[in-house]
Structures are given as C-alpha cells and as structure tokens.
Amino acid sequence: MHTRLIAVAALAALTPVLLHGNVAADNHQNTHRRTPHAGLATVKNGAATTEAVSLPDAAHNAPSHYQAATKPFSAAGLTWVGEGDVHASIRTHSDGRWSPWFALGHGETGPGRAGTALAWTGTSDGVEITAQVAYGSAQDVRLHLINPGQDTYTSGSRGPLAGVDESAAPLPVLSRADWQADESQMTWPAEYAEDIKAVTVHHTATRNDYTPEEVPAILRSIYRFQAVERQWGDIGYNVLVDRFGRAWEGRAGGVDRAVVGAHAGGFNTGTAGVALIGDTTNEMPTAEAKETIARFIAYKLHPYGIDPRGTVQITGGPSTSYPAGSTIDVPRVFGHNMTSATACPGYGLEIHLDQLRERAAVLGGSVSLAPPV
Known about the structure:
Number of domains: 2
Strand content: 25-35%
CATH topology of the largest domain: Lysozyme-like
Low-confidence stretches: 1-46, 59-64, 155-164
Number of helices: 5
Order of helices and strands: HEEEEEEEEEEEEEEEHEEEHEEEHH
CATH class of the largest domain: Alpha Beta
Largest sheet: 7 strands, mixed
CATH superfamily of the largest domain: Peptidoglycan recognition protein-like
Distance between the termini: 52 Å
C-alpha cells in the first residue's frame, strides 16, 4: 500500500496514469474494476500473443486508476503517438507475490510508434504501472503485455568454445530460426548499405538473471515489440549477445552483409548494431559477453580495413540528439548514447568500450563466421 501511494504522489503533478493488475489489488474509490480480460485487445501472430491495454489519456493532473486481469505474459512495454516522452515504473505479479518496482528503460528511436524499452518480467499474471508524460505530447498510450509462446525445440549451445584459442575459432551466430522468429511479423524488407563504417554498442535494458533456456523467448518478445508494436517491421539490432557469450542473429538480411538496422536513431546506414541482452546500467557485462562482442566488432570492421580504435564521421538523423542531415564525429566503436539522448549502453558496458576496441584490434582478420549447425 505504501509503495503505491508513494508512486502516485510522486507523479501526481505531471499527469500520471496508474494501471494495476487484478491480483491482490488495493481498493480505491476511483478505481475502475473490470471483468477479467475485458478491454484488452488480444493480438496473435504465430507463437507470440500481445495483450494491448489502452491507457486513459493523461489530460489532467489527478491520477487515473485502471484495473484488469491479465493472461500470462513475460514481457511488457509502453508505446504512444507523439513527440513527447513517457516515463513509467512497473511491478508484476507472479506466484502470489508482487515484484519490486522498476523503471521501464528509454526506448530506441525509430519509425512508427514511440515507446519505452521492453522489460523482461518472466511469467507473470498481474501488472501495476505508473506512467507520466515527462514532456511534449503523447496520445494513445498503450501497455503491451507479451507472451512469447513456448519453444518447440531446444537449440544447441554454441557459445564460447572451451579449450580452444578463441582468436582462431569461427564465430558461431545462432540464426533467427534458432530463436524461432515468426517471419510473418517481418514486414520491413532488408536494406543494405555500401559498407560498414562503425559499430554501435547497446544493451537491451532487460533483466540480467535470465537462464540460457529463456533467451529465445526474450528474443521473440523484443522482436514482437519492435517489429509489431513499435511498427518497425523487424527487430532493430543486427546481432544480440547473451550473458553466456552466445551470439544471435537479429535483423533479417544476413549477418555477413551490411544490413541497415533500426538502432542508432537515424544513424543506421553504415553502422552495425550489437546489443547485449541485459541491463548494464549498474552491472558489469560478463567476460563471455565481452569476448563475443569484440569478435563481432572485428568480424564487421576488418574486411573494410578499419582500425576499431579510430574515429569516423557519420551523417544521419533525426534522432533525439541531432536533426536530420547531421554529420558527427564518433569512435569506430561507439555507444548508442553518442547518437541519441539515452543512457544506453549503460555505464557498466560503456566503461569497457576501450577494452572492446583493443580486443577487436588484436583479433583483426582472424574471426570468421561458423557455418550453420
């Protein structure tokens, strides 16, 4: 009770919206009680299912309360229409208990609907959220509760190879089929740049305590949120790396090609986006993840004769930091926060960028892609 009142009081001056799940919810005079699943738009596509909840417009300073039952879900994120920004905190219900409150991270910029980062919650059956328009305009605010579906098979682990020289070992990249991407959701035809000039490093701002078996479901959730709910047509990152050091193909079009992603706020052409699955705001990346990211950097830059420790001018925009047509100087390996107003890739990963550059320079042209298994 105290947590909820504090959250409401802290946001009351900035047009908040409060939505909370039906499980063990507090009674409030102005809470709207709903029949289970009433008012929820269920959108199905392949193995993934989204419960889309339309939140009341934040048009006044008094908090608005909304209550509804939820079907099982494992990930959650907000989207909206408008140039403004929405800040939100969320907690979820599972196994008879509520989780601690946590903030939804800042989302990537891109075409379609604006949005937060996606939060991996694990299997949950209730949700409570506080959301406020931080600035500007935001209409048609929706909460998306994503059930990624069940894996129909378990892919083999092809992470860092024990007992071998990593600098000489091929880089295994698990395919979209390995994480069971529903290709009917992919509506953005692959586009290609002439070359790769730089690599953008990200974190997905999702939880760090996932298991190896959960990774395909996490990827399907990110894909669903970015491709369908954010209306990007595909996942934004070119490659994603889990904390166990496994690399996974992201955006369609070929890991070995200069595919234009949707990850750097208008500076996507000629940059390859690699995202660490997890949140490095306050935690350090694992050694296995760093090694795989460095090997991916070497693989993408060396064919163009690029020293990963150098700098380059890139032109792009618009982003949350630069207008369209901006030309900026960036390192050949740079964090997402150099092109957009975001904390990504998080302090824990950002302080290791020099280490990644040095390691990629040492690896040079020794990294090749492993053949599919």
